[in-house]
Amino acid sequence: MSEYFLGVDGGQSSTVALIADRSGRVLGVGHGGPSNHVGAAEGKAKLTGAMRDCLAAACAQARLDAAKIRFASSCLGFSGGPADKQAILKDVVASDRMIVTHDALIALVGATGGLPGLITIAGTGSIAYGRNAEGETARAGGWGFIFGDEGGGFDIVRRALRAALRFEEGWGQPTSLRPLLLEATGAKSANELLHRFYTSEFPRPRVAGYAKIVDQAAEENDLTARETLLQSAHELAVIAHAVREQLFAEEEPAHIAFMGGVFRSRTLLDRFRAEMEAEPGNTVSPPVYGPAAGALLEAYRAAGVACTLSNVPIEKH
Length: 317
What we know:
This protein is an alpha/beta fold. Helix content is about 45%, strand content about 20%.
């Protein structure tokens, strides 16, 4: 019987693998390239390469033979979902049990330390996801930048640019967002910046990165920036509440975690926390572990092994 367990977090920028023993002690961590797109032949090769790279690195650190290791249980979570990856991964990972799932589940499990609860993720986009003690799950949001993702970084910057455009055209409130955005991007006008944001030079994650400028303006008492962040916090709280309502009874204790760059804004986080903790039973906190550790915990859960993780590396999330 194998004594080793595997957790993998496969995302848009990198893939992280954790190998641990039956006691829950992490023995090795490895990193690979992005692994979220596999539609074309090139994408499949990237997925396979990213997985082999991160497994080889984790095995090397754990002093295990990557060519021979077989895991007792493994969980692999991916941005973009599991549907097109299961068959490919069977040829890459040798495991008695294998769960291939989406990134929201492993983020949730890591954030709550495997306990029932829910997580609100706000990076480029946004989503809330939860699971209760009965194993029931629910989600809200995550519908993409056109139809959803309220409160995410892209949505915040879109609102900020709209405010800058209104001010530039003379029918909006004065705001420091316009000069701050122009300085950060080198554009000469909000109108020029709008057109730049439509080009491939500014993919959505890059645009979302300018959310920190909105936070800067809010910290400097710009009313429009502050209102933008407070509205975003409210919308994130709304989707979190929608998930809670589906999974937990009124006033039942619920652990609510938050993750993503948007929550680095003190203005936004304080409002989100206040709205969520206004409901009896809610406890709001940052993640206990990152998504890769969440995948590892899910691997133990699938094998029916109860343990406490140790020697867990700090993950960026």
